[in-house]
Amino acid sequence: RKEVEQDPGPFNVPEGATVAFNCTYSNSASQSFFWYRQDCRKEPKLLMSVYSSGNEDGRFTAQLNRASQYISLLIRDSKLSDSATYLCVVNRQGGKLIFGQGTELSVKP
Amino acid sequence: NAGVTQTPKFQVLKTGQSMTLQCAQDMNHEYMSWYRQDPGMGLRLIHYSVGAGITDQGEVPNGYNVSRSTTEDFPLRLLSAAPSQTSVYFCASSTGLAGGDTQYFGPGTRLTVL
Asked: Which of A47, B45, B86, B90 has its CA 20 to 30 A from that of B22?
């Protein structure tokens, strides 16, 4: 079992749709959590950190459930420019970042 | 600021050759790391460093060496290239790993080993 697992995707949605990505992690000692975005063949870029209380950045909402070891990302009112691969990232204790395999999103007109 | 730079962008090696992938950052970040990305596998941590003179192994360190003699540079050395090392390699840096600390990635090196 992978330490960080994501929905395999791809997700194909129309513009304006709401889409949710799920991620689970197996190491209960994990300390911090992130969502990164990666465009085709480019480097990953931080989308948002994920806090225990949940946090929102415009159309993006991230949630963390430490008891269930579950992280989510909700995108509202999807835009064509949201098409990318979304990476769930966990900071395992000791300074190691562990990436999920990514979930591909394709937003269609 | 140039951010994180990597050279070369593309490289083709023959099995058994050695080479060094260069990574540099000009943001005075203490934390630097190397990842490889293979289709369907996500990014996997090879080695990382929490400061000059300090390095440690990640998930997939075999076949790779690193050193960190300065804050700015974190080269990755392939000792004897194998076809299984064909991948895209990303270097990253950050001030730390706490919530809110952004990992800045370089543009990547696409390596093919024949």
From this structure: A47
Across B56-60, average pLDDT = 91
CB contact under 8 A, A95 and B100: no
Contact B103 A49 (CB under 8 A): no
* Mean pLDDT for chain A overall: 92
Residue B98 has pLDDT above 70, yes or no: no
The C-alpha atoms of residue A17 and residue A12 are separated, in whole angstroms, by 10
As a whole-number percent, the residues of chain A with pLDDT over 70 amount to 97
Which residues of chain A lie closer than 8 angstroms to B58, CB-CB? 96
CA distance A9 to A6: 9
A45 touches chain B (CB under 8 A): yes
Q: Do B60 and B74 form a contact (C-beta atoms < 8 A)? A: no
Q: What is the CA radius of gyration of chain B?
A: 13
Residue A60 forms contact with B (CB below 8 Å): no
Nearest chain A Cα distance for residue B31, angstroms: 9
What would the mean pLDDT of A68-84 be, rounded to a whole number? 97
